[in-house]
Amino acid sequence: MLKYPENPSPGNDPPPAPTVAEAIAIVASWDTLSIERRRGLTSSLRAIARIAESDPATLRLCPAELNAKVLGRAPQLYGLSATSMATVRSHVRYAMRRLGLLDTRPTLTPAWAELRRHLAPRVLMTLTRFLAYHSVAGVLPAEVSDETFERCQKWILTETLCRNPRRLFGQIRYVWNKVAREMPELGLPILGAARCQVRKTVALADLHPDMQADLALMAARLGSSDLDEDFDDADIGDVLGSGPVIDQAGHPAPRRALRPITIDERLRHARQAVWVAVQIGVPRNEIRGLRDLVVPLTRAKQIIRYLWDRAGKAPSASAGHVAEVLRQIAKFHVGLPKADVDQIAVWHRKVAPKYAEMTEKNRRRLEVLLTPAAEAKLLALPKVLMEEARELLPVSPVLAVSAAKRALLVHLELFYAFRVKNVCLLRRDRHLVLAAPGTPDAARFLIPEEELKNSKTFDRPVLSLTNAYIQEWERTFRPLIAAPGNPYLFPGEDNKPMCRQAIAASLKKIIVERVGCEVNIHLMRHRAAVAYLKIYPGEFGIVAELLGHKTEKTARKSYTGPERDAAFERFDHTVLDAMKSLKRASAPKHRRPRAGRSLLVNDGPASPRTSRGHKHAPSPASSRRSSVQRTATGGVPPSPGATRSNARKKGAAE
Fold first, then answer.
1. H helix or E strand, kind and range, residue 235
2. What are phi and psi of 402, to 5 degrees?
3. With contact defined as beta carbons under 8 Å apart, do 207 and 243 qualify?
4. What is the pLDDT of residues 6-17, one digit of tens each?
5. How many whole angstroms separate alpha carbon 50 and alpha carbon 466?
6. Mean pLDDT lowest for which of 107-111, 119-123, 243-247, 462-466?
7. CB contact at 8 A, 277 and 285
8. I need a surface site. Which of 111, 490, 491, 503 has the fewest CB within 10 A?
9. Is 615 helix (H, G, I), strand (E, B) or coil?
């Protein structure tokens, strides 16, 4: 690690990291390297500035800045292949080490060197930086803890180059715990969850027991409905322990049970409100229940105001979520007067972002995705991937399965615009209606309303092309990864489906690599709507049916911007067409020469003219006569007078 004094004085402050432009100038002075080597280093330094979308004169060549602005981005978006990006990383790492901006690999202490001797090569590849940090920090293998691991994560983020910190930290935790369990004789401790972000919530275990009981009761209420006859506050209190008694008549349950993922989000927002309360000076032990978040009412205001200030006095999703959950707590779980609930609702409307149309971020991504070049690559991608899968099958079944899975996934998103949850849970025995008993062809996709977000049944005919992809996937590739009895179209471990994160990451990666556009799986739904509205502006009803919206209102709210652009484009064409018609109407009309009027023969630079001065092309007969006359006079054209004299002589002779 770089050695900086813990309390530097003005005289020994470490110099700031050079900019990319300064590093390029320094590299040019390294005469010990060949010209080709220096040229490669310079090109790589310019490439990281292009990926960071920054001026080389302002981008600092330090690990923290490169990790945040460069290494986490897909190189294909900037015209670089994965191989070229690996070369760029190697060149930048070499230049930074030579400039003293990166540490060389330290020598391990005896305790860590002994542990290293017991580890397999693949395990060492994952734990290299973990071992190096704890060795230099003087921590023994048996003394590793969640606190030392968290300090190690901060060191990796600020002192080393790391493409995907979140993934690396998860792999370190998994591999370390696996070694600790499989080799108990080493005496290694088990690590908890890997965190690479600042915690903005309070863990459930750290809350007051009464607050934990309140949150459990809140989750139970959100998971029930007003038609649930088994819902009873007294029974829930017996199961969950003591807690505040809630008047069922005054505080009804939701009209329908919320999804588990929605309930988890509400509880997380409530714990985030606890975290904010601690930040504004409320002792944690004084927050004993949900009531303490909204009583007194000024506390709810301070919580919302903190998030408003933190977002730069601008609306933000975080402030909107917390304000909304405080309103729900005040109304449904505490029972504050209507005036207080309405006041929190006013604050919520002020801090929550308002989405009148598609967000600017999604619009910019879609503009790139819907260009003719990107559209052609995306539409051809399923066929290309399936052909690759057939070729890879004899050589590498693993890669073949991956290609075929992505081909089917992209195809389903292009034609059916499924939500990621519904793609994960697709099953042939449940969601595909066969065309006839005993045949593999499916006639319709039929997903019941209880499995969909908007409680609206998904019922769509299945294309013959879709049947071909599904049958080839199930016949050739799916058996290579599916456990016996697994019913899901995209199988995961045992009898479970493939997880949402894996499907989303798989789709995102292949589109970045092959199309060169940064997307997520939900953006494919936006693409389907926008592509349709560009051809058929105003047909929001079709879009609502395609995406499973209950009404056109959601479609209009989300896709008004792109649809409006298509309308403007059509209007522009009407004006341009009118301008072209006016231009044709005002053009001068040319008169034809009267019949019998001959053209003068003239081979000069000007074209032959009639007596009225209009240009006309010479007739074939006159061209032939000019050619004969040139030949007779040795290539010099005769004068018009000579031509008429010869004609009179010829007539007199006859």
1. helix 233-240
2. -60, -45
3. no
4. 333 334 455 678
5. 40
6. 243-247
7. no
8. 111
9. strand
Phi-psi region of 30 (alpha: psi -120 to 50; beta: other; left: phi over 0): beta
AA identity, residue 336 = L
Distance CA 464, CA 120 (A): 49
Cα angle value 199/291/234 (rounded, 5°): 110
Residue 178's CB: how many other CB atoms inside 10 A?
A: 11
> What tokens were used for 16?
């700031």
361-521 under CATH 2.60.120.10, yes or no: no
Amino acid found at 215:
L
Residues ≥6 apart with Cβ < 8 Å to 526: 358, 362, 366, 558, 559
Please name the residues in contact with 455: beta carbons below 8 A apart, sequence gap of 6 or more: 256, 449
324 vs 332: CA distance, rounded Å? 12
Q: Quick one: which H or E segment has residue 434? A: strand 432-434
- Residue that the structure tokens 């080839």 belong to: 472
For the ranges 113-127, 178-192, 565-579, 582-596, which has the lowest average pLDDT?
Answer: 582-596
Q: Using an 8 Å Cβ cutoff, are 231 and 224 in contact?
A: yes
At residue 430, what are phi and psi to the nearest 5 degrees? Answer: -120, -35
What is the pTM (predicted TM-score) of this model? 0.67
Tally of helices (H runs) and strands (E runs) in the chain: 27, 3
User: Which tens digits make up the pLDDT trace of 452-462?
Assistant: 887 788 999 99
Residue 14 burial (CB < 10 Å; 0-12/13-18/19+)? exposed
- Which DSSP state fits 205? G
Q: Using alpha carbons only, how large is the chain's radius of gyration in Å?
A: 37
pLDDT (0 to 100) of residue 285: 86
Rounded Cα gap, residues 573 and 566, in angstroms: 11
Domain borders along the chain are 20-98, 110-186, 204-236+253-351, 361-521
Contact between residue 41 and residue 94 where contact means Cβ atoms under 8 Å apart:
yes
Sign of the Cα pseudo-torsion (287, 290, 292, 298, in order): positive
Helix (H) or strand (E) holding 565: helix 552-586
